[in-house]
Amino acid sequence: MSMAMCGPSYSLAHDRINPKSQGVIPPAGATHPGGDDGYYEGDMKWPRARPALAPQQESKIMNPSRMNVESFNLDHRSVAAPYVRIADRKELPLGDVITKYDVRFTQPNVAHLEMKAIHSLEHLFAECSRNHSQQVIDFSPMGCQTGYYLILQGEPNVPAVLDLIEATLTDVLQATEVPAANEIQCGWGENHSLSAAQDAARAFLAKRAEWEQVSA
Ligand SMILES: [Zn+2]
Fold first, then answer.
1. Do 168 and 149 share a domain, yes or no?
2. Which residues line ion ligand 1, judged by CB < 5 Å?
3. Which range marks the domain in which residue 203 is found?
4. How far is the CA of 191 from the centre of ligand 1 (A)?
5. Of 5, 97, 137, 214, which sits with the fewest C-beta atoms within 10 Å of its C-beta?
6. What is the distance in A from the centroid of ligand 1 to the CA of 183?
7. What is the pLDDT of residues 158-214, one digit of tens each?
8. pLDDT tens digits, residue range 13-24?
């Protein structure tokens, strides 16, 4: 798989990495075998020892087949929906952490949520979840329509996140309308179905005991 589809493989904010280089990236700490004058690679000169990068960047340059997006490195044939798993964690420059959860409703490449269901459930969850948590940053559908990404402030553990999801979906079942389902508050105000969203929520809740089991 080529990494060129999204630009250079080594598009890191690090001026000593040459994105045009086709050579082997020296391991962190490596020095030039021929002397102490630095480490040459193509037209790029490393300092005496290549500095270690952040773990994620280090992993990327040492494993160039790894893709930028965490879920693109997930074998979707190996999972057993429904499930909830931590997909990513990011530490921000000032030390705050945000965590991204993969909330998978249907089995990848086997089933998906219909457009109105996934859209209305997005509205309902986005609105209702904030009644239960101040940590909700985003809840967005996956383009494949098999689930959502839930992004939370901090690093809530999975059981706490499952409780939040359960409480929110229980609210969804009680809802009498889809919030903001109109052309003023939504980009496709006609594309909604409360009953379809509730069916999806009900089916997901029925498998509550299986949410923590990610793999088949
Ligand atoms: Zn909308």
1. yes
2. 186
3. 72-210
4. 8
5. 5
6. 9
7. 999 999 999 999 999 999 999 999 999 999 999 999 999 999 999 999 999 999 999
8. 344 444 344 445
- Lowest mean pLDDT of 29-38, 89-98, 113-122, name the range: 29-38
User: Is the domain of 83 the same as that of 179?
Assistant: yes
Q: How far is CA 137 from CA 11, 60, 72, 140, 158, in A?
A: 27, 27, 22, 10, 16
Say whether both 87 and 107 belong to one domain. Answer: yes
Is 82 contained in some domain?
Answer: yes
Q: In angstroms, what is the span from residue 26 Cα to ligand 1's centroid?
A: 48
Kindly state whether residues 39 and 141 are assigned to the same domain.
no
Q: Report the candidate in 105, 124, 119 with the shortest Cα–Cα distance to residue 203.
A: 105
Which pLDDT score, from 0 to 100, does residue 159 have?
Answer: 95
Using CA atoms, how far apart are residues 107 and 100, in angstroms rounded to an integer? 19
106 alpha carbon – ligand 1 mean position (Å): 21
- pLDDT tens-place string over residues 138-149: 999 999 999 999
Length of the chain measured in residues:
216
Q: Are residues 79 and 48 in the same domain?
A: no
> Is the pLDDT at 9 greater than 70, yes or no?
no
Q: Output the CA 72–ligand 1 centroid distance in Å.
A: 26
pLDDT tens digits for 172-182?
Answer: 999 999 999 99
Residue 7 lies in a domain: no
| Cα(161)–Cα(166) distance, integer angstroms | 9
* 115 phi and psi angles, rounded to 5 deg: -55, -45
- Give distance in angstroms: CA of 164 to centre of ligand 1: 22
